[in-house]
């Protein structure tokens, strides 16, 4: 069973990352990579949190089965940057809709926090997230299909959560501020013991 972060890094090539950065107005390659790293891991963390309830897992599984089988990776450049020959359906590419489901009413707070931590403008981060969100779900679908039924989405999410390791207290504080749903200053209860930590060097081999 493949880690979905591996699927993302294997398919989102360096030229595609650089072109995406230029398309949304980020000229610095390192800053683009840092923004993508933070965005993708924050989105995965939020998906894992949402899927920590039976209802949330059912909703995620239904979305994966209907619109996110991994075929988005058949035309990465076309689907990521637009203007390609992709025949991917509109629901699969509805990044704005996916973000609404993932982050709910916390989008402004999340992008504001990410902007401060990455040095990338909030509107640029949102544009990038809209482009990347379908690939996050596509990677989940691809991992689920490649597992040949041996592992469900819960196991796939547990794997990726466990791989996002960091002991940096500042990063933990950042997660607390953007994903804590009940405002008590702790995500420990919110993530139900998933062991979620983020901000490794996703694009650093």
Question: How would the global form be characterised?
Answer: globular
Portion in beta strands: under 5%
- What sequence of helices (H) and strands (E) makes up the elements? HHHHHHHHHH
Q: Helix amount, in percent?
A: 55-70%
Unreliable parts = 165-172, 184-205
| Average pLDDT number | 76
- How does the helix and strand content classify structurally? mainly alpha
Description:
The protein is mainly alpha-helical and 205 residues long. It has one domain (4-179). Helix content is 62%, strand content 0%. It has ten helices and no strands. The chain has helices at residues 4-11, 14-23, 29-50, 54-67, 76-81, 95-103, 107-118, 122-146, 153-163, 169-179. The longest helix has 25 residues, at 122-146. The chain is globular, with a radius of gyration of 16 Å. The chain starts with a helix and ends in a 26-residue tail after the last helix. The model is unreliable at 165-172 and 184-205 (pLDDT under 50).
Please give the structural blueprint:
Blueprint (H helix, E strand, L loop, with lengths): L3 H8 L2 H10 L5 H22 L3 H14 L8 H6 L13 H9 L3 H12 L3 H25 L6 H11 L5 H11 L26
Helix pairs in contact: 1-8, 2-3, 3-8, 3-9, 6-8, 7-8
Index terms:
10 helices; 205 residues; mainly alpha; globular; single chain; disordered C terminus; 62% helix
Summarize the structure.
The protein is mainly α and 205 residues long. It is built from ten helices and no strands.
């Amino acid at each position: 069973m493949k880690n979905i972060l591996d699927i993302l890094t294997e398919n989102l090539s360096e030229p595609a990352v650089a072109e995406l950065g230029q398309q949304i107005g980020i000229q610095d390659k390192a800053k683009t990579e840092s923004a993508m790293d933070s965005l993708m891991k924050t989105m995965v963390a939020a998906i894992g949190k949402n899927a920590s309830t039976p209802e949330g897992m059912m909703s995620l599984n239904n979305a994966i089965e209907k619109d996110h089988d991994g075929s988005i990776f058949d035309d990465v450049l076309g689907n990521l940057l637009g203007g390609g020959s992709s025949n991917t359906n509109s629901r699969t590419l509805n990044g704005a809709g996916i973000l609404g489901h993932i982050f709910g009413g916390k989008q402004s707070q999340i992008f504001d926090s990410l902007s401060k931590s990455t040095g990338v403008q909030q509107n640029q981060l949102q544009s990038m997230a809209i482009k990347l969100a379908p690939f996050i779900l596509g990677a989940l679908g691809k991992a689920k299909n490649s597992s040949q039924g041996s592992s469900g989405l819960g196991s796939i999410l547990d794997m990726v959560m466990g791989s996002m390791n960091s002991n940096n207290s500042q990063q933990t504080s950042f997660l607390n501020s953007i994903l804590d749903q009940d405002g008590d200053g702790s995500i420990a209860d919110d993530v139900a013991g998933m062991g979620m930590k983020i901000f490794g060097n996703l694009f650093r081999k």
